[in-house]
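Before relying on records like the one below, remember that each one covers exactly one chain. Contacts with other chains, cofactors or solvent are not represented anywhere in the record.
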Amino acid sequence: MPQLLHTTLLFALTAVAEIIGCYLPWLWLKRGGSPWLLLPAALALGVFAWLLTLHPTAAGRTYAAYGGVYIVVALLWLWQVDGIRPTQWDLLGGAVALLGMAIIMLAPRS
């Protein structure tokens, strides 16, 4: 699997773990969900942190590039979970964020 595809998929999985880890407490606090939601939320955030360690590049670069993929996954979450279709501007912003991720991850390094 090409490195950029592998990295992007790993970032996407990482983003899903982070969003779940934050969404479940949101359900508890804003929608009156069960406090038991905090257990899978904590697990998801632990998985999120672990997944970030699987990237071969420096932590700061990983976090910077991850942000671009996180934006796109959050827009997909907005659409699929919240039931709100992203606007053209959302999609343009997501494309720019992905371009930024690609530039950061593919830049030549010495």
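DSSP finds four helices and no strands in the chain.
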